[in-house]
């Protein structure tokens, strides 16, 4: 929708489509149709931090995952890890840790497959400004049926892994404070081994599609919504990528370490969240750098940029190939997220293969207990980036404080910058069309944001673009 | 002359011992009558009315009504099922029952009755009452949000545990289970091994720190509906 006031135009895209959750974009144009400002607004509200107060701590991993239907496993595990710490669990049993890891890699695999095949592939296969009637998952299914089927089957495989480890495909109960409530039966293991080679093969081909597309269109993609940024992720003690557990590492746009191997129980010494009056989503930044320049990116791009290696052979080879493009320096191209996401897709299925062949998964020692601490932080690398859960629990076992910093929240500032850059580069001084507005959404989609997670949905899904004048009057609004 | 009482349930002849309730006689014959406040180790209470049957055309609580010679009982007729569904739905909206994260889920009798009766969502508006939790006891968690006022804990504490820890206070919509102390459960002599805790049909009285130890797929009602163990007795 476009509205005009005082010769200023406000374009609104609402809702933003093919993202998880509900958001809108507002674009402010001046008299010469030059973009003055563009913002991504997250219009949902999350109340979880408040309404889990008073609930018993063992309930939290199951309760809090309800804030998302897309990657509940990440919240389930982050909360369980926090409650491990609260209850003083120093180290899980091998069966418990490996079952949780299997659950997590299953989640990563299905989430990345869903995003790539169903949400993003229409843009890559048909073009950013292709006819919206075909630029969707139905269009992909019609023209590239093999790809569409692969997406569905890969997602199904990941979901079945989740069911076998968590008890249900969505919102399971597997991870409990101090461990896990089940192991993997031989029958379950064998059912996954049967289709494993096919999944690996499809992951390789998905990676190839993402890589070839990025390399082939690098000239166009390199400046598209791109900018230098810091990157943050969990890292294993030897510097390798670890999606389940590790310490915090932050690097700058050149790859210099801002901090490294930070115990995440002390995250508040390193990360601060800023509140702005136009969004329900906070803006985190690195404390030592400050709000102005301390923002950072998380997710596949940050993880591949920041790690020293990947501990599975095919994903490591793919990482090296990716890093060669920027001669070993961090890659700050926003659209490179897709390539790195597919590197992680392959890494996840390689990890699933390793785990399925590990007899620890059939162990029966599932839970350990420790000395009560009463406070704990749990971090995990969710599909969309680093996820923080922080809780305080009183002596009666009730939660008294909760703070969640969700992956999409870390990416709030980068997404806003991407939106503004794309709007300025593509919408200034031209007649605004649906195809051009989709460019804005393409930049948002690169981050695979989960807007409902980042705030929390009180209502239904999707995104809007608004055009406002310099005094804030609404000039136009486009909803999908 | 036989000392057995003969009556019919849904047209099938059933025999009862003198003094046996309709529900007990039905159970003996492998006929399941849904119930919530009834518990085989406790005296009948007749408060939830989920076990309502039509006895000679009149609605009666089968857990308190003795079987009588020649009685004609309707247990699974459309009319009876409708009464029970309405009662179960009212129980759901009167409290704050969030099955999706309740640790009793899969083992909860209220949830199991809803599944058995095909209740996907209640038709009545939710009341969302403001209710308390009591976490003061070191080993027991009390969540009044989930209480259905079945009085199982009240009866078990008094009759089986010999303690009288729980009692009803208030009237009508303000009725609730209170503890026999100045303020909290921690001030009573309740113990985690008490029968009162074990017989709670919902997630209102819980043993602390157990949570979701039983995985999905191994819970009481994951594979078979509530009552199927009684129906399996039917020859």
Care to give the gist of this entry?
The complex is a heterodimer of chains A (480) and B (235). Chain A is an alpha+beta fold and 480 residues long. Chain A has helices at residues 48-51, 60-63, 72-86, 94-126, 137-143, 145-166, 186-216, 218-221, 300-306, 313-325, 337-356, 407-410, 412-427, 434-446, 451-454; strands spanning 2-5, 8-14, 23-29, 35-42, 175-176, 179-180, 230-235, 247-251, 257-262, 271-274, 283-286, 296-297, 375-382, 385-393, 399-405, 464-468, 474-479.
Key terms for this structure?
heterodimer, A: 480 residues, alpha+beta, six-stranded mixed β-sheet, four-stranded mixed β-sheet, 15 helices, B: 235 residues, Ubiquitin-like (UB roll), Alpha-Beta Plaits, 2 domains, five-stranded mixed β-sheet, three-stranded antiparallel β-sheet, 6 helices, 21% helix, globular
Polypeptide structure, described:
The complex is a heterodimer of chains A (480) and B (235). Chain A has 480 residues and is an alpha+beta fold. Chain A has a domain at 2-46 and 412-446 and 463-479. Chain A contains 15 helices and 17 strands. In chain A, strands 1, 2, 3, 4, 16 and 17 form a six-stranded mixed beta sheet that branches. A four-stranded mixed beta sheet of chain A has the order 9-8-7-12. A three-stranded antiparallel beta sheet of chain A has the order 13-14-15. In chain A, a hairpin with a 2-residue loop joins strand 1 (2-5) and strand 2 (8-14). Chain A is globular, with a radius of gyration of 22 Å. Mean pLDDT of chain A is 90; it is low at 454-461. By secondary structure, chain B is of the alpha+beta class. Chain B has two domains: 5-76, Ubiquitin-like (UB roll); 88-207, Alpha-Beta Plaits (2-Layer Sandwich). Chain B is 21% helix and 16% strand. Chain B is built from six helices and ten strands; from the N terminus they run E-E-H-E-E-E-H-H-E-E-H-E-E-H-E-H. Chain B has a five-stranded mixed beta sheet with strand order 2-1-5-3-4, sandwiched between helices. Chain B has a three-stranded antiparallel beta sheet with strand order 6-7-10. In chain B, strand 8 and strand 9 form a beta hairpin. The mean pLDDT of chain B is 96. The interface between A and B is medium-sized, with 23 and 18 residues.
């Amino acid at each position: 929708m476009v509205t005009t006031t005082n010769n200023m135009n406000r374009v609104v895209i609402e809702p933003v489509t093919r993202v998880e959750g509900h958001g809108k974009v507002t674009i402010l144009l001046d008299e010469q149709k030059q973009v003055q400002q563009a913002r991504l607004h997250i219009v949902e509200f999350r109340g979880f931090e408040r309404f889990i107060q008073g609930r018993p701590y063992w309930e939290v991993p199951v309760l809090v995952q309800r804030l998302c239907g897309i990657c509940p496993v990440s919240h389930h595990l982050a909360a369980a890890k926090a409650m491990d710490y609260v209850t003083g669990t120093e180290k899980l049993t091998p069966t418990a840790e490996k079952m949780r890891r299997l659950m997590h890699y299953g989640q990563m695999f299905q989430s990345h497959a869903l995003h790539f095949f169903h949400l993003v592939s229409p843009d890559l296969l048909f073009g950013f400004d292709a006819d919206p009637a075909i630029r969707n998952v139905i269009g992909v299914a019609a023209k590239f049926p093999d790809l569409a089927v692969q997406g569905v089957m890969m997602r199904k495989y990941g979901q079945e892994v989740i069911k076998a480890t968590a008890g249900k495909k969505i919102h399971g109960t597997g991870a409990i404070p101090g461990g896990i409530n089940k192991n993997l039966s031989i029958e379950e293991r064998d059912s996954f081994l049967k289709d494993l080679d096919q999944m690996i093969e499809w992951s390789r081909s998905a990676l190839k599609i993402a890589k070839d597309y990025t390399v082939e269109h690098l000239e166009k993609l390199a400046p598209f919504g791109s900018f230098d940024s810091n990157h943050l992720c969990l890292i294993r003690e030897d510097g390798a990528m670890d999606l389940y557990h590790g310490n915090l590492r932050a690097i700058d746009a050149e790859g210099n370490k801002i901090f490294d191997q930070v115990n995440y129980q002390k995250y508040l010494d390193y990360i601060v969240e800023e509140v702005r009056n136009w969004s329900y989503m906070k803006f985190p930044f690195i404390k030592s750098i400050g709000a102005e320049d301390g923002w950072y990116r998380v997710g596949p791009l940050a993880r591949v940029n920041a790690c020293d290696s990947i501990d599975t052979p095919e994903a490591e080879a793919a990482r090296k190939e990716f890093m060669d493009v920027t001669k070993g320096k961090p890659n700050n191209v926003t659209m490179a997220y897709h390539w790195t996401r597919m590197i992680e897709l392959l890494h996840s299925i390689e990890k699933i293969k390793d785990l399925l062949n590990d007899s620890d998964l059939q162990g029966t020692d599932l839970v350990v207990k420790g000395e009560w601490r009463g406070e704990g932080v749990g971090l995990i690398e969710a599909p969309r980036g680093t996820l923080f859960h922080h809780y305080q629990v009183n002596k009666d076992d009730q939660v008294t404080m909760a703070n969640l910093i969700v992956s999409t929240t870390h990416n709030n500032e980068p997404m806003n910058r991407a939106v503004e850059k794309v709007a300025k580069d593509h919408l200034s001084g031209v007649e605004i069309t649906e195809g051009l507005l989709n460019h804005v959404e393409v930049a948002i989609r690169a981050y695979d944001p989960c807007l409902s997670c980042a705030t929390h949905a009180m209502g239904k899904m999707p995104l809007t673009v608004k055009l406002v004048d310099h005094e804030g009057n609404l000039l136009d609004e486009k909803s999908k | 002359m036989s000392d057995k009482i003969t009556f019919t349930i849904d047209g099938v002849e059933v025999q009862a011992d003198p003094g046996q309730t309709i529900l007990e006689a039905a159970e003996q014959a492998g006929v399941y009558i849904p119930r919530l406040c009834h518990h085989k180790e406790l005296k009948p209470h007749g408060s939830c009315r989920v076990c309502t049957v039509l006895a000679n055309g009149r609605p009666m609580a089968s857990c308190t009504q003795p079987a009588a010679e020649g009685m004609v009982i309707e247990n699974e007729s459309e009319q009876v099922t409708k009464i029970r569904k309405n009662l179960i739905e009212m129980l759901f909206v009167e409290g704050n029952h969030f099955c999706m994260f309740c640790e009793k889920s899969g083992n909860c009798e209220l949830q199991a009755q809803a599944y058995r009766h095909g209740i996907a969502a209640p038709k009545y508006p939710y009341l969302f009452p403001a209710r308390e939790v009591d976490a003061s006891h070191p080993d027991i968690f009390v969540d009044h949000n989930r209480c259905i006022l079945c009085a199982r804990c009240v009866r078990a504490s008094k009759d089986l545990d010999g303690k009288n820890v729980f009692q009803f206070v208030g009237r009508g919509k303000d009725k609730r289970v209170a503890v026999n102390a100045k303020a909290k459960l921690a001030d009573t002599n309740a113990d985690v091994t008490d029968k009162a805790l074990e017989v709670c049909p919902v997630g209102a009285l819980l043993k602390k720190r157990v949570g979701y130890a039983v995985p999905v797929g191994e819970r009481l009602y994951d594979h078979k509906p509530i009552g199927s163990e009684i129906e399996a007795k039917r020859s």
